Amino acid sequence: MTASMETISDKLLAWYDVHARSLPWRARPGSPLTDPYRVWLSEVMLQQTTVAAVKPYFAKFTERWPSVEALAQAPEEDVMAAWAGLGYYSRARNLVKCARAAARMGGFPETEVELVKLPGVGAYTAAAIAAIAFGQRAVVVDANVERVVSRLFAIAQPLPASRKTIREKAGAITPDDRAGDFAQAMMDLGAGICAARDPDCALCPLAADCQGYASADPARFPIKAAKKAKPVRQGTAYWIAQGGKVWLVRRADKGMLGGMRAFPDDGWRAGADGSGTAPLAGEGETLGIVRHSFTHFSLEMAVVKLDSDHSPGEQAGEWWPIDDLESAGLPTLFAKAASLAAAQD
DNA sequence: CACCCGTGGTT
DNA sequence: TAACCAAGGGT
Fold first, then answer.
1. Kind plus residue range of the DSSP H or E element containing A214
2. Using the CA of A164, which nucleotide's C1' is the nearest one?
3. Å from A275 (CA) to B10 (C1')?
4. Secondary element (H or E) of residue A318
Protein backbone atom coordinates (compact mmCIF):
# COMPACT_ATOMS: atom_id res chain seq x y z
CA MET A 1 0.00 0.00 0.00
CA THR A 2 1.55 3.27 -1.11
CA ALA A 3 0.42 6.79 -0.32
CA SER A 4 -0.96 7.11 -3.83
CA MET A 5 -3.42 4.33 -3.02
CA GLU A 6 -5.16 6.50 -0.44
CA THR A 7 -8.80 6.67 -1.43
CA ILE A 8 -11.08 9.66 -1.72
CA SER A 9 -12.95 8.59 1.41
CA ASP A 10 -9.66 8.21 3.33
CA LYS A 11 -8.69 11.76 2.47
CA LEU A 12 -12.11 13.16 3.21
CA LEU A 13 -12.41 11.39 6.56
CA ALA A 14 -8.94 12.55 7.59
CA TRP A 15 -9.99 16.10 6.73
CA TYR A 16 -13.27 15.66 8.64
CA ASP A 17 -11.44 14.46 11.75
CA VAL A 18 -9.81 17.88 11.91
CA HIS A 19 -12.40 20.22 10.38
CA ALA A 20 -15.83 18.81 11.28
CA ARG A 21 -18.34 21.47 12.23
CA SER A 22 -19.62 21.32 15.79
CA LEU A 23 -23.40 21.12 15.58
CA PRO A 24 -26.02 20.60 18.31
CA TRP A 25 -27.36 17.39 16.73
CA ARG A 26 -23.96 15.81 16.22
CA ALA A 27 -22.34 13.28 18.53
CA ARG A 28 -19.60 14.60 20.74
CA PRO A 29 -16.10 13.61 19.65
CA GLY A 30 -15.47 10.14 21.01
CA SER A 31 -19.07 8.97 20.95
CA PRO A 32 -19.52 7.41 17.51
CA LEU A 33 -23.32 7.39 17.32
CA THR A 34 -25.99 9.78 18.48
CA ASP A 35 -29.65 9.55 19.51
CA PRO A 36 -31.76 8.47 16.49
CA TYR A 37 -34.48 10.87 17.62
CA ARG A 38 -32.14 13.85 17.39
CA VAL A 39 -30.71 12.67 14.09
CA TRP A 40 -34.18 12.25 12.61
CA LEU A 41 -35.47 15.57 13.99
CA SER A 42 -32.47 17.51 12.71
CA GLU A 43 -32.55 15.86 9.30
CA VAL A 44 -36.22 16.73 8.80
CA MET A 45 -35.67 20.30 9.95
CA LEU A 46 -32.66 20.63 7.65
CA GLN A 47 -34.58 19.64 4.53
CA GLN A 48 -34.13 22.62 2.22
CA THR A 49 -33.36 24.74 5.27
CA THR A 50 -30.14 26.36 6.46
CA VAL A 51 -28.24 25.30 9.57
CA ALA A 52 -28.62 28.80 11.02
CA ALA A 53 -32.40 28.71 10.63
CA VAL A 54 -32.67 25.24 12.19
CA LYS A 55 -30.60 25.78 15.32
CA PRO A 56 -33.14 27.70 17.44
CA TYR A 57 -35.97 25.38 16.39
CA PHE A 58 -33.92 22.28 17.19
CA ALA A 59 -33.16 23.69 20.64
CA LYS A 60 -36.81 24.56 21.24
CA PHE A 61 -38.12 21.19 20.11
CA THR A 62 -35.62 19.04 22.01
CA GLU A 63 -36.20 21.00 25.19
CA ARG A 64 -39.97 20.78 24.94
CA TRP A 65 -40.08 17.23 23.53
CA PRO A 66 -36.86 15.43 24.63
CA SER A 67 -37.80 12.06 23.16
CA VAL A 68 -39.79 10.61 20.30
CA GLU A 69 -42.28 9.32 22.87
CA ALA A 70 -42.81 12.84 24.19
CA LEU A 71 -43.29 14.21 20.70
CA ALA A 72 -45.66 11.38 19.85
CA GLN A 73 -47.93 12.46 22.71
CA ALA A 74 -47.99 16.14 21.72
CA PRO A 75 -51.14 17.60 20.15
CA GLU A 76 -50.56 18.18 16.44
CA GLU A 77 -51.72 21.77 16.92
CA ASP A 78 -48.88 22.47 19.36
CA VAL A 79 -46.26 21.05 17.00
CA MET A 80 -47.60 23.06 14.07
CA ALA A 81 -47.45 26.27 16.12
CA ALA A 82 -43.91 25.47 17.29
CA TRP A 83 -42.89 24.89 13.65
CA ALA A 84 -44.31 28.25 12.52
CA GLY A 85 -41.70 30.25 10.63
CA LEU A 86 -39.59 27.28 9.50
CA GLY A 87 -41.61 26.69 6.33
CA TYR A 88 -42.67 23.59 4.38
CA TYR A 89 -45.38 22.83 6.90
CA SER A 90 -46.15 19.35 5.61
CA ARG A 91 -42.93 18.49 7.40
CA ALA A 92 -44.55 19.35 10.73
CA ARG A 93 -47.66 17.28 10.06
CA ASN A 94 -45.51 14.34 8.93
CA LEU A 95 -43.27 14.86 11.97
CA VAL A 96 -46.16 14.09 14.29
CA LYS A 97 -47.29 11.11 12.23
CA CYS A 98 -43.75 9.76 12.10
CA ALA A 99 -43.16 10.24 15.83
CA ARG A 100 -46.34 8.33 16.64
CA ALA A 101 -45.39 5.53 14.24
CA ALA A 102 -41.88 5.27 15.69
CA ALA A 103 -43.16 5.34 19.27
CA ARG A 104 -45.63 2.60 18.41
CA MET A 105 -42.75 0.53 17.00
CA GLY A 106 -40.72 1.03 20.17
CA GLY A 107 -38.21 3.26 18.41
CA PHE A 108 -36.89 4.03 14.97
CA PRO A 109 -36.16 1.14 12.59
CA GLU A 110 -32.49 0.76 11.74
CA THR A 111 -32.56 0.02 8.02
CA GLU A 112 -33.09 2.29 5.04
CA VAL A 113 -35.80 -0.01 3.69
CA GLU A 114 -37.87 0.40 6.87
CA LEU A 115 -37.00 4.04 7.51
CA VAL A 116 -38.13 5.20 4.09
CA LYS A 117 -41.63 3.90 4.81
CA LEU A 118 -42.07 6.52 7.56
CA PRO A 119 -43.99 9.73 6.77
CA GLY A 120 -41.71 12.59 5.77
CA VAL A 121 -38.69 10.27 5.43
CA GLY A 122 -37.52 10.00 1.84
CA ALA A 123 -34.46 8.43 0.24
CA TYR A 124 -32.05 11.06 1.56
CA THR A 125 -33.31 11.15 5.15
CA ALA A 126 -33.57 7.35 5.41
CA ALA A 127 -29.97 6.95 4.26
CA ALA A 128 -28.77 9.72 6.58
CA ILE A 129 -30.44 8.21 9.66
CA ALA A 130 -29.23 4.69 8.84
CA ALA A 131 -25.66 5.90 8.41
CA ILE A 132 -25.40 8.57 11.12
CA ALA A 133 -27.57 7.11 13.87
CA PHE A 134 -27.09 3.38 13.24
CA GLY A 135 -23.65 3.19 11.68
CA GLN A 136 -24.80 1.39 8.57
CA ARG A 137 -23.32 1.80 5.13
CA ALA A 138 -25.75 3.93 3.17
CA VAL A 139 -25.29 6.17 0.15
CA VAL A 140 -26.39 9.61 1.31
CA VAL A 141 -27.14 12.02 -1.52
CA ASP A 142 -28.27 15.55 -0.83
CA ALA A 143 -27.65 18.80 -2.73
CA ASN A 144 -24.15 19.07 -1.24
CA VAL A 145 -23.23 15.59 -2.39
CA GLU A 146 -24.71 16.30 -5.81
CA ARG A 147 -22.51 19.35 -6.13
CA VAL A 148 -19.32 17.72 -4.82
CA VAL A 149 -19.75 14.61 -6.96
CA SER A 150 -20.67 16.63 -10.05
CA ARG A 151 -17.39 18.51 -9.67
CA LEU A 152 -15.24 15.52 -8.72
CA PHE A 153 -16.27 13.72 -11.90
CA ALA A 154 -16.97 16.78 -14.07
CA ILE A 155 -20.44 15.47 -14.90
CA ALA A 156 -21.54 17.25 -18.08
CA GLN A 157 -25.15 16.15 -18.03
CA PRO A 158 -27.44 18.71 -16.33
CA LEU A 159 -29.54 18.10 -13.22
CA PRO A 160 -31.99 16.55 -12.64
CA ALA A 161 -31.24 14.02 -15.40
CA SER A 162 -27.77 13.42 -13.93
CA ARG A 163 -29.12 12.09 -10.61
CA LYS A 164 -28.71 8.45 -11.56
CA THR A 165 -25.07 8.92 -12.50
CA ILE A 166 -24.42 11.01 -9.39
CA ARG A 167 -25.85 8.29 -7.15
CA GLU A 168 -23.64 5.68 -8.82
CA LYS A 169 -20.53 7.82 -8.40
CA ALA A 170 -21.43 8.63 -4.79
CA GLY A 171 -21.88 4.92 -4.11
CA ALA A 172 -18.48 4.18 -5.60
CA ILE A 173 -16.69 6.49 -3.17
CA THR A 174 -18.76 5.70 -0.04
CA PRO A 175 -16.72 3.60 2.41
CA ASP A 176 -17.98 0.50 4.22
CA ASP A 177 -16.85 1.92 7.54
CA ARG A 178 -17.77 5.37 8.87
CA ALA A 179 -20.44 5.93 6.22
CA GLY A 180 -22.16 8.36 8.58
CA ASP A 181 -19.02 10.43 9.07
CA PHE A 182 -18.38 10.24 5.34
CA ALA A 183 -21.86 11.63 4.61
CA GLN A 184 -21.44 14.45 7.10
CA ALA A 185 -17.95 15.14 5.76
CA MET A 186 -19.35 15.48 2.23
CA MET A 187 -21.96 17.91 3.53
CA ASP A 188 -19.39 19.93 5.49
CA LEU A 189 -17.15 20.06 2.44
CA GLY A 190 -20.06 21.18 0.27
CA ALA A 191 -21.21 23.76 2.80
CA GLY A 192 -17.80 25.28 3.41
CA ILE A 193 -15.22 24.62 0.71
CA CYS A 194 -17.00 23.14 -2.29
CA ALA A 195 -19.62 25.88 -2.01
CA ALA A 196 -22.19 26.63 -4.69
CA ARG A 197 -20.38 29.77 -5.71
CA ASP A 198 -16.73 30.61 -5.41
CA PRO A 199 -15.41 27.23 -4.20
CA ASP A 200 -12.16 27.42 -2.24
CA CYS A 201 -10.26 24.66 -4.05
CA ALA A 202 -6.98 25.69 -2.42
CA LEU A 203 -8.29 24.28 0.87
CA CYS A 204 -9.97 21.20 -0.59
CA PRO A 205 -8.61 17.81 0.47
CA LEU A 206 -9.91 16.30 -2.77
CA ALA A 207 -8.52 18.82 -5.25
CA ALA A 208 -5.96 16.34 -6.58
CA ASP A 209 -8.78 13.91 -7.38
CA CYS A 210 -11.17 16.49 -8.80
CA GLN A 211 -11.82 16.49 -12.55
CA GLY A 212 -13.72 19.74 -12.17
CA TYR A 213 -10.68 21.36 -10.61
CA ALA A 214 -8.53 19.96 -13.40
CA SER A 215 -10.92 21.54 -15.90
CA ALA A 216 -10.05 24.98 -14.48
CA ASP A 217 -13.70 25.93 -13.94
CA PRO A 218 -15.16 23.68 -11.23
CA ALA A 219 -17.85 26.22 -10.32
CA ARG A 220 -19.77 25.52 -13.52
CA PHE A 221 -20.74 22.14 -12.06
CA PRO A 222 -23.36 20.95 -11.43
CA ILE A 223 -24.93 22.09 -14.67
CA LYS A 224 -28.62 22.75 -14.15
CA ALA A 225 -31.69 23.00 -16.32
CA ALA A 226 -33.25 26.45 -16.64
CA LYS A 227 -35.90 27.40 -14.09
CA LYS A 228 -39.39 28.67 -14.71
CA ALA A 229 -40.30 32.29 -14.14
CA LYS A 230 -42.06 33.11 -10.86
CA PRO A 231 -45.52 34.67 -11.36
CA VAL A 232 -47.11 37.28 -9.09
CA ARG A 233 -50.52 36.62 -7.55
CA GLN A 234 -52.86 39.01 -5.79
CA GLY A 235 -55.09 38.23 -2.83
CA THR A 236 -56.82 39.57 0.25
CA ALA A 237 -56.74 38.62 3.93
CA TYR A 238 -59.33 39.86 6.43
CA TRP A 239 -58.75 41.38 9.86
CA ILE A 240 -61.95 40.86 11.88
CA ALA A 241 -61.53 42.12 15.42
CA GLN A 242 -63.76 42.75 18.43
CA GLY A 243 -63.15 43.07 22.15
CA GLY A 244 -59.38 42.88 21.80
CA LYS A 245 -59.55 39.62 19.87
CA VAL A 246 -59.18 38.74 16.20
CA TRP A 247 -60.69 35.94 14.17
CA LEU A 248 -58.28 33.16 13.13
CA VAL A 249 -59.04 30.13 11.00
CA ARG A 250 -57.18 26.87 10.49
CA ARG A 251 -56.15 26.31 6.90
CA ALA A 252 -56.92 23.07 5.08
CA ASP A 253 -54.31 20.34 5.56
CA LYS A 254 -53.39 20.27 1.90
CA GLY A 255 -52.07 23.16 -0.12
CA MET A 256 -50.22 26.32 0.82
CA LEU A 257 -49.47 26.73 4.53
CA GLY A 258 -51.56 23.61 5.13
CA GLY A 259 -52.82 23.07 8.67
CA MET A 260 -51.57 26.42 9.91
CA ARG A 261 -53.54 29.12 11.72
CA ALA A 262 -54.22 32.13 9.52
CA PHE A 263 -56.52 35.05 8.85
CA PRO A 264 -59.43 34.24 6.56
CA ASP A 265 -58.57 35.03 2.95
CA ASP A 266 -59.97 34.92 -0.55
CA GLY A 267 -57.80 32.06 -1.71
CA TRP A 268 -55.38 34.42 -3.47
CA ARG A 269 -57.07 33.57 -6.72
CA ALA A 270 -58.15 37.13 -7.22
CA GLY A 271 -56.24 38.92 -9.90
CA ALA A 272 -56.86 42.50 -10.77
CA ASP A 273 -60.45 41.40 -11.45
CA GLY A 274 -61.25 41.25 -7.73
CA SER A 275 -62.93 37.88 -8.08
CA GLY A 276 -62.23 36.83 -4.50
CA THR A 277 -64.98 36.41 -1.93
CA ALA A 278 -64.92 38.04 1.49
CA PRO A 279 -65.88 35.90 4.53
CA LEU A 280 -68.67 38.31 5.43
CA ALA A 281 -70.54 41.20 3.88
CA GLY A 282 -69.94 44.83 4.71
CA GLU A 283 -67.59 47.69 4.14
CA GLY A 284 -63.88 46.99 4.34
CA GLU A 285 -61.00 49.31 5.00
CA THR A 286 -57.69 48.37 3.38
CA LEU A 287 -54.97 48.59 6.02
CA GLY A 288 -52.10 47.88 3.66
CA ILE A 289 -50.41 45.41 1.33
CA VAL A 290 -48.19 42.53 2.42
CA ARG A 291 -45.63 41.31 -0.09
CA HIS A 292 -44.27 37.79 0.31
CA SER A 293 -42.30 35.49 -1.96
CA PHE A 294 -42.89 31.74 -2.01
CA THR A 295 -40.95 29.10 -3.92
CA HIS A 296 -43.01 29.23 -7.09
CA PHE A 297 -44.92 32.50 -6.91
CA SER A 298 -44.92 35.90 -5.26
CA LEU A 299 -47.95 37.26 -3.47
CA GLU A 300 -49.29 40.77 -2.99
CA MET A 301 -51.87 40.37 -0.27
CA ALA A 302 -54.13 43.23 0.76
CA VAL A 303 -55.09 43.28 4.44
CA VAL A 304 -58.68 44.45 4.81
CA LYS A 305 -60.34 45.33 8.12
CA LEU A 306 -63.98 44.27 8.23
CA ASP A 307 -66.81 45.60 10.39
CA SER A 308 -66.70 43.62 13.63
CA ASP A 309 -70.45 43.89 14.24
CA HIS A 310 -70.85 41.01 11.85
CA SER A 311 -70.18 37.40 12.78
CA PRO A 312 -67.40 35.62 10.89
CA GLY A 313 -68.08 33.39 7.92
CA GLU A 314 -68.74 29.69 7.86
CA GLN A 315 -65.12 28.54 8.10
CA ALA A 316 -64.33 27.19 11.56
CA GLY A 317 -62.05 29.35 13.62
CA GLU A 318 -61.36 30.95 16.97
CA TRP A 319 -61.08 34.38 18.56
CA TRP A 320 -57.47 35.07 19.51
CA PRO A 321 -56.16 37.82 21.84
CA ILE A 322 -54.55 40.48 19.67
CA ASP A 323 -51.82 41.17 22.23
CA ASP A 324 -50.84 37.48 22.19
CA LEU A 325 -50.75 36.80 18.45
CA GLU A 326 -47.13 35.62 18.74
CA SER A 327 -48.33 32.44 20.44
CA ALA A 328 -50.76 31.62 17.63
CA GLY A 329 -47.97 30.23 15.48
CA LEU A 330 -48.79 32.15 12.33
CA PRO A 331 -46.71 31.42 9.23
CA THR A 332 -44.59 34.35 8.13
CA LEU A 333 -47.04 35.68 5.53
CA PHE A 334 -49.77 36.10 8.16
CA ALA A 335 -47.35 37.23 10.84
CA LYS A 336 -46.52 40.12 8.50
CA ALA A 337 -50.22 40.84 8.08
CA ALA A 338 -50.70 40.74 11.85
CA SER A 339 -47.95 43.23 12.55
CA LEU A 340 -49.34 45.50 9.87
CA ALA A 341 -52.89 45.36 11.25
CA ALA A 342 -52.10 45.33 14.94
CA ALA A 343 -50.16 48.56 14.53
CA GLN A 344 -53.31 50.28 13.26
CA ASP A 345 -56.16 48.52 14.99
C1' DC B 1 -40.57 13.33 -14.36
C1' DA B 2 -42.87 17.76 -13.28
C1' DC B 3 -44.86 20.28 -10.07
C1' DC B 4 -46.08 21.80 -5.51
C1' DC B 5 -44.53 23.24 -1.02
C1' DG B 6 -41.61 28.43 2.95
C1' DT B 7 -38.29 31.14 4.48
C1' DG B 8 -34.32 34.13 5.15
C1' DG B 9 -29.68 35.20 3.73
C1' DT B 10 -26.45 36.45 0.00
C1' DT B 11 -24.86 38.49 -4.23
C1' DT C 1 -32.84 43.85 -6.80
C1' DA C 2 -34.04 39.83 -8.92
C1' DA C 3 -32.12 35.50 -8.69
C1' DC C 4 -30.10 31.97 -6.41
C1' DC C 5 -29.51 28.97 -2.72
C1' DA C 6 -30.15 25.65 1.66
C1' DA C 7 -28.93 18.22 5.03
C1' DG C 8 -36.02 17.09 0.17
C1' DG C 9 -40.62 14.75 0.30
C1' DG C 10 -45.15 13.88 -1.64
C1' DT C 11 -47.97 13.26 -5.48
1. helix A211-214
2. B1
3. 37
4. strand A317-321
Q: Cα(A196)–Cα(A194) distance, rounded to whole angstroms?
A: 7
Report the distance separating Cα A182 and Cα A249, nearest Å: 46
pLDDT of residue A273: 41
Mutual orientation of helices A143-152 and A179-192 as an angle, nearest 10°?
80
- pLDDT, one tens digit per residue, over A135-188 is 999 999 999 999 999 999 999 999 999 999 999 999 999 999 999 999 999 999
Which nucleotides on strand C sit less than 7 A from a protein beta carbon?
3-10
**Residue–nucleotide distance: A164 CA to C3 C1' (Å):** 27
What's the CA–C1' distance between A145 and C2, in Å? Answer: 27
Q: Report the footprint of strand C: residues with C-beta closer than 7 angstroms.
A: A 21, 23, 25-26, 42-43, 46-51, 88, 90, 94, 119-126, 128, 142-144, 147, 184, 187-188, 190-191, 195-197, 224, 227, 229-230, 295
> Which residue ranges form the domains of chain A, and what is each CATH number?
3-220 (1.10.340.30), 232-342 (3.90.79.10)
